[in-house]
Fold this protein.
Amino acid sequence: MQFCLFYCFYLLLLSLPPFAIAQTQPNISLGSSLSTLDENPSWLSPSGEFAFGFYLLPDRNLFLLAIWFDKIPEKTIVWSANGDNLVQKGSRVELTASGQLILNNHQRQLVWQAEYSNNSESVISAAMLDSGNFVLMSMNSIIWASFNNPTDTILPTQILRLGSNLPSRLTETDYSRGRFLLSLQSDGNLVFYPVALPTEVVYSSYWASMTNGKGFELVFNSSGRIHIKLTDGGSYDLAPATEAPTTEVYQRATLDFDGVFRQYVRRKTQFSDGRWAMSWSVVWFLPPDMCASDFGTLGSGACGFNSYCWMDENQRPSCQCPPGYSFLDPNNEYKGCKPDFPLQSCDEDISKEKLQFEMKALFNTDWPNSDYDGYTNINEDKCREFCLNDCLCIAASYKDGSCYKKKVPFSNGKKDPSVGAKILIKVPKNNSALPPTSIGRGKKDQSTLIIVGSVLLGSSVFLNFTFFLVMLLLGFILHRRKLRDVKRELTMLGKNLRCFTYKELEEATGRFKEELGHGAFGTVYKGSFMMPDDSTTSVAVKKLEKVVEEGENEFTTEMTAIGQTHHKNLVQLLGFCDEGPHRLLVYEFMSNGSLSSFLFGGSKPKWNLRVQIAFGIARGLMYLHEECSTQIIHCDIKPQNILLDDCLRARISDFGLAKLLNTDQTRTSTGIRGTRGYVAPEWFMNMPITAKVDVYSFGIVLLEIVCCRKNVESKPASEEEEILSDWAYDCYREGKLNLLVESDEDAVVDKQKVERLVKVAIWCIQEEPTLRPSMKKVTQMLEGAVAVSVPPDPSSFFSSLG
């Protein structure tokens, strides 16, 4: 009988959740407390993997009562109590003698407490468990648990039951309640909602599991599988399991501030030299394309009002303002955009105001919920005219003969090649944007001349007539000069560029003192300009050498095309100098130099960072090839022409300059454009040059990024030159990809991604241009949106011809 009782108790113990078994671990006794004044204001789990306590937000010097992963370098928060009411130094959390867990601020005012229903049993202790669950315990049960009161994250072994919610945080660093909500509804359906802040009212859902009447629990098990348990005994998997047990990796699933539910993993182990294997990696996410989600008719959509959403190289939704608009909060791009100009007036007395506006185009973009009027079977010029003539029209969309007028605020904006529509944004013409002071100054000059002339008229008729002619001539000269200056300034404003004088750039660079580099297009120097707030901003000034002599119009045309480009993976052109023999370009200054120095300059960069750089280059080239109003072919893609900004984001430079370069200024003796080792074979074969030459060069650069070695290494004269692209294909064909990334432990672990990137690179370097994918297809293959088939031998096509 005693054995039977013991056996039954043992089975009951096994059936309890993991946190119940952990009660035998050291507990936090009644009367214990933590203060922000303590040196380490936290309680650790037995293994030390999780901590409960005060988390200092360094950029705000305020404290969050939270639970976080404590053993890894980035102390990732998985639960928080007071995101909407942060506390200052001197605050305290206490497990009182009566069993209440309370948080008081520095003025001893109650900020938060763990709420639980009256129970016949009293809380006798608390514990931070190795599962990441913080619990209040009685003698026999759990009275309160953080797992049952989640914020934006769930962890392995955690269960969400019917009626449970996960609210997102507001931004990546702001833990107050955010714009999105995950809810396991009472009807058994898992639904994602946008929230009408500052209330808790929700708009129409943008994703749902469609398990109505069937689901009753959302389970995150220890193998990494996240699924909804169904009443019929089945389950609905949100995504495949990670196939990595919690003994080897940390795992979490978070409704991020951008409204996407993502599962993350991170290796627990360190390398022998003390380095961590990798940071958090995304395993899967829902919805698959946040920007394409249907948000209904209310609310702003994935981004704020007057902005549009597009998926960046990390497959994360990013927000951007249309031309003439800027972010309401520069530190929070999801908050929306505002116009930087007064909207068109509807006053009949100034109906000619429409002449002060023009329409600027955005491609593959739309705000589908902002339409109020529409037309069919008209051309684009008519669509522009109809919007300009309507003072209520702020923008118009045009596609296949259909024109739809739009009103503010714009909502649910998205940018994607699948949209197909062109958006025409109404913005002031350049002259309406000029400061009125320039006009006033001109009038003042003319008034001064009139006054002086009037005084002189008091003398003799002859003198009056003479002075009148002199004043007339002087006024005419000043007026012509003013018109010329204004016209020149207007022209430059229209291209979003500034026209510099040679003297200005000579002074900015200290007479071209500090050389940053030298390439096929010329020499680059570092310069700086004083800003209105007395700060200085650094620029890169490129002196073009031996530009084609097609006259000023050709040069200005190319500058116009370059100046109209805008993408996060392109170096922005700020202005130029076109003065006599001088042709100079002024760019943003990239503080981290070139990809060449980054890859080949010393220690091997981290694998994940290299992958993101490759994705960024692909996105930038896709923009140049397919999303610009005029296609731009770079013709010289190589690591030296890929620069890295402050965030180590890839930025393509020197794009659009190929037309300006004399063929004798290339680095080969064949008159082709490009650099040895990166040049597509069609340059040598009298074949048409298309955007596929950039695809070829990108393939070579991608292999260099994967392997961290140059495509063509300099060898002594006695040694045969080894070509990386040839070796990479041999390794792929023989199933020895590990040789390409040996000694790179992160890449070795991520062997599936290594294989995908190498296969994409081999497709890119096919000698037959038609076999190479477009940069759009390349980007989709890199990011896993499109399967990558087995590539053929890159040289097989021309070999078969021979």
Q: What stands out?
A: The chain has six domains: 17-147, 150-288, 291-429, 436-494, 495-589, 596-801. The mean pLDDT is 81. The longest strand covers residues 522-530. The first helix runs from residue 2 to 15.
